[in-house]
Amino acid sequence: MAIRIGIYGYGNLGRGVESSIMQNPDMELVAVFTRRDPASLQIQTKTAKVLSVNDCESMKDQIDVMILCGGSATDLPVQSPKLASMFNIVDSFDTHANIPTHFDEVDAAAKAAGTVGAISVGWDPGMFSLARIYSSCILPEGESYTFWGKGVSQGHSDAIRRVPGVKNGKQYTIPVESALAAVRSGAQPKLSTREKHTRECFVVAEEGADLAKIESDIKNMPNYFADYDTTVHFISEEELEKNHSGIPHGGFCIRSGVSGLNKENKHVIEYSLKLDSNPEFTAGVLVAYARAVYRLSQEKVTGCKTVLDIAPAYLSPLSGEELRKTLV
Amino acid sequence: MAIRIGIYGYGNLGRGVESSIMQNPDMELVAVFTRRDPASLQIQTKTAKVLSVNDCESMKDQIDVMILCGGSATDLPVQSPKLASMFNIVDSFDTHANIPTHFDEVDAAAKAAGTVGAISVGWDPGMFSLARIYSSCILPEGESYTFWGKGVSQGHSDAIRRVPGVKNGKQYTIPVESALAAVRSGAQPKLSTREKHTRECFVVAEEGADLAKIESDIKNMPNYFADYDTTVHFISEEELEKNHSGIPHGGFCIRSGVSGLNKENKHVIEYSLKLDSNPEFTAGVLVAYARAVYRLSQEKVTGCKTVLDIAPAYLSPLSGEELRKTLV
What we know:
Number of strands of chain A: 14
Number of helices of chain A: 11
Strand content of chain A: 25-35%
Helix content of chain A: 25-40%
Largest sheet of chain A: 7 strands, parallel
Largest interface: A-B, 71 and 71 residues
Oligomer: homodimer
Low-confidence stretches of chain A: none
């Protein structure tokens, strides 16, 4: 019998989860839950229902794992504990500083309800967390470096669009090649924020807007741009649509360490991602961990887990025997 | 109290394990076991004993985890099950085709004795097995590629040294750059053995040997060289010593996959290693998994495990709380 999945929230990420489920024959999409009018929603899976989020409790016995596809700012802090009290869940909560609190809240709800909740499942946090833990445990004397991009940062794109005179905009985060090269050499450089990433903005201005002022407002925006070398390009709405409508992303997680009695040998471990679609890739990670959550739940495990707490074999549809034969 | 470690076999790998333990303050080397005369062995750790392999059983209660540092051809198939009947063990068994059998033998011994055995811990199998399972579960529609090098292959170096007229030699396995580039592009090429790697040999010939014959013998050697583009350089013993005495290695594990309703988005996951010392890096992996084995044993787990069966958090000296705060 297939693992029965629910999708809670049907934006870019929810649609990504739906298409990812189609690539996993041991999974079945049972229902999509939406805050919109269910009648207004078109989904791809003919056999799945579209329901209001208010009706999710009635589906308790028909869903093995609920995949939460809301945002980390306001959705998941509320939804994850609430849904963990009814379902096994997976979320992609990515506000790093609040992970301990989010973990505790989901853990309490899941333990009380006898469910499993996997949080912060995606690529950072998620796959990059795995890259960091494995590499730092193997090379305890060393430095870890994380670079993001080249890719679209939604937060920075939103920030641009809030600048007066800006009609639309997209921001790319770009790792500095020379910094990457220095890290890969095994040199363990100290790198400032400015030395690691640059920011490139494509901006559609409102007619008659003061372009110099927009550029200066962006470049000097605290937290978002002031600490970076930022480039601003003014382009037309058509150009933005044509060349910048994708949501690519990626990045590099590098550990540089030493071994030997005199620390004479250098080692570099690098994990990198090059993604055409950030939400679809994140969806792939969520779906693999939904399989793990289902299995943990079958083993009567309860409570909150991160990717660090889950053995890799749980992600695979193959048996231990098959894995040892073909993959180890 | 520190985790008490024994090292079984004191070659390159055993020495690497000893220096790795020095980088992990929660671990303590208790004893090195050797087949040689213990009195003839100089080790670096003043507080540790050097004992004969025949005396290991007497140390049963003083060692939490035994790290096996023998070879996969003849040592580990015998030693791992035997020692798992007395100790928790970790080994780096790397004969891929025999992993299922080795697993079953260690599993039976460990379950009977109430111990834990982690096998095939290193970088391939080991870290590359992890790269393969995570990436293939996240991107189920795709292809996995493993490239090795640039690095010294002990097996191929040994094969060269068996050729008549050869006094000494070293072989480097080198990934073909254009093949790497094709895989990274997301193209999912079909690559033959010859298209993936080249082999470069540095050979010291005996005086008066027929160099043309040696070169032909090497290049046409079945399994080892015949399927590859192989280069043979004749050099002096001094040159070999000066430029080729290191044991560097590394490689690339790449998954190229697609997502989206029409499979329109490409994703590339790459895990790579660049290692100055193959045995010292492997030692770092063994020691991190010794920590995991110790903890599993504390939790009353028994039997054989591979890296796929062990949750990453077990490798770290940090608590779950610390990990969520600093690393996830």
